[in-house]
Specification:
single chain; alpha/beta; Rossmann fold; 2 domains; seven-stranded mixed β-sheet; about 20% strand; globular
Length: about 375
């Protein structure tokens, strides 16, 4: 947990940097993100990814004869902070769009403000699915894309028959585990318990006692990205729980910060730094060149942010304007060749994604074990197309 203040200091430096030397006619992208609270472990990597994308677009001449600029606001990783951050970005800073990774609690609190302000919003965080708004697109995974690879692996390759579900008590935690329970039971497995703690909880003793009492073959964890993953996993390890660990909300950067506690944890996601592709190598090299020893580990929350900025720039160019209705229409048609491959948000405002099953190694890296190409997000927002 000592890592968090260091990251916050880094984030503060980054936020200050994006305000220097901007012009009045810049196209402004608002980034509401959890620089404090549960997401403070991962938010700095998201800001860095957005900064690199903006630099790349501007170096290529900008869009519509104008430069892109970021305005970053701390949403506190929760609903109350998000309302303030969205309101400030949309109505005070007059941003042209919002692009960010946030907790589901923050997103849900901010969406009514997005509707009132009528600005395009690209949500770049994996989440529990089926959040729909006429102004919002999502380029990250949903349960329909992520749960099956992990559950199938545990049941078919590890012989797991019994599962225990642990989550943070908010939309993401409960939504993910509702889907997961249904999938496990449909596949013939049994859920022995399902327990939740508040997003800011640090004591998992009562939950771990129930895990020990039921002795499941596997744990499936859906906690808020960042700090809750750190505290829960550490306490599970200290308690000597020997079940297979599957984490539905752990990013690679947080895993590296956890050291030996994360080793052996199974993950499923759409991006890992170990992806052996030219596009990912180019992305990692550019991140390293820009941030040097201040670079936060790129991950499945920051790579979508990078791609979303580029998608917005392409949508602006195709629309020929920053006018919301035209940009919204264009966002469904543009594709981005990024570190995760070709991304196009054309499935009911969501994106088909290549998914990977991986396992955290002793050095914190993720070894990719299986690949699942172009997984459809399933029915998400049928009324939006």
């Amino acid at each position: 947990m000592r890592r968090i203040p260091v990251l916050l200091a880094s984030a503060a430096f980054l936020v200050g940097a994006v305000h220097i030397g901007h012009a009045a006619d810049d196209i402004v992208i608002g980034v509401p993100v959890g620089l404090s609270g549960a997401n403070s472990v991962v938010a700095p990597s998201v800001v860095q990814a957005a900064e690199l994308a903006v630099d790349e677009v501007n170096a290529a001449g900008g869009v519509l004869g104008r430069k892109l600029r970021l305005e970053v606001a701390d949403d506190g990783s929760g609903a109350a902070g998000a309302q303030k951050a969205y309101d400030a970005l949309i109505f005070q800073k007059k941003v042209d769009a919002l692009i960010s990774m946030e907790t589901s609690a923050a997103r849900n609190a901010g969406l009514p403000i997005v509707s009132r302000g009528k600005v395009p919003f690209i949500y770049t965080s994996f989440y529990e699915g089926r959040s729909c708004n006429k102004y919002m697109y999502i380029n990250a995974w949903v349960p329909d894309q992520q749960v099956a690879p992990m559950v199938d692996f545990f049941m078919k390759e590890k012989g797991a028959k019994t599962f225990f579900l642990i989550g943070s008590d908010y939309a993401f935690g409960r939504g993910m585990l509702e889907f997961t329970r249904a999938y496990v039971e449909k596949a013939g497995g049994k859920v022995l318990g399902e327990e939740y703690n508040p997003m800011d909880a640090t004591d998992w003793t009562a939950v771990i006692s129930k895990v020990r009492a039921t002795n499941p073959d596997a744990l499936l964890i859906s906690t808020a990205g960042g700090a809750p993953n750190v505290t829960l996993t550490k306490q599970l390890r200290t308690a000597g729980i020997t079940a297979h660990y599957g984490n539905l909300g752990l990013d690679e950067g947080t895993a590296k910060s956890m050291g030996a506690d994360a080793q052996g944890t199974y993950l499923a996601g759409s991006y890992y730094t170990s992806l052996d592709t030219d596009a990912n190598k180019k992305f990692l090299a550019a991140m390293k060149q820009k941030f040097g020893d201040k670079l936060e580990t790129p991950n499945d929350l920051s790579a979508p942010e990078y791609e979303a900025v580029h998608a917005y720039a392409k949508a602006l160019a195709k629309a020929g304007t920053t006018q919301t209705d035209k940009v919204i229409e264009a966002l469904a048609t543009v594709s981005v060749e990024g570190p995760r491959g070709t991304i196009i948000m054309n499935k009911q405002r969501h994106a088909p994604l290549t998914m990977y099953l991986g396992q955290v190694q002793p050095d914190g890296s993720v070894k990719i074990m299986s690949e699942f190409k172009n997984v459809d997000p399933g029915p998400q927002c049928p009324n939006l197309g």
